[in-house]
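Continuing the batch. This is chain 6 of the set; chains 1 through 5 are on the previous pages. Same settings as before, nothing changed between runs. Recording input and output for traceability.
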Amino acid sequence: MDITMVDEFALDWQLAGKSKRAAIEYSRYLHQLIGLHSEPTLRQVKSWLNDCKSIPVRRKRAQAIRAFGAWAQSSGCRVFTWWSQIPVPRECTRPQPTVTVDDYVRVIRSVSNPRDAALVELLWSTGLRRGEIARLEVSDINFAEGFLIVRNSKTNKPRIVPLSPPARRALRRHLARRTTGNLFGLSSDGIRKCLARLAAPPAHAWRRGWAVHALRSGVSEASVRSVAGWSSGAMVVRYTSALSGELAVDEFRRLLFM
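Output for chain 6:
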């Protein structure tokens, strides 16, 4: 098989507006497979998948094969014609750390400088990913209207994210009239280390906590999806599944029992 087909697949994937990260990851797995078998058969692919002991990695490998096979079929290429026979392993969903109001209060009380306070308030207010925060510029914040713009997201699609009044106040204090430059001057890893120094939960725990808190407060699932940058409700379910019972109780109390 011509290895350049993989590169063309990855390019088409991104041109269709899909995740660049997934394109890179799928290409890497496909290159690995073709490096072992230039014309892989169904049996060889299944053996390659079975050799991987990690369920999440095996799942990604299978998704790469199926995505490439579907693309090849739609492009009229006679390769990986058996792609639909590749099973995708199920990944067990385990309860993930989720920031609560108590966590937020504990951490915000422990901060000792305006930058750390602004970072914590931003995480609690927006649920942004670490990389998205690291790429924010001062010019991305609209204080007058109370929102910021995420220009470079995981899905390569910009979006608008509202800011809470406490987050706006904390950001103003942090910036101290500065109007240009990177918002925090921290890399993604720098943000991780900052949270560790504060004995704060990791950024994704804040993202989950933000989603749960928003839904619990009555924000619609559609709005949570839009602000989080999720294309479907599947990620909302994934982030909140461990607390779905509590969310249901809260909703009934708010709408029926008050």
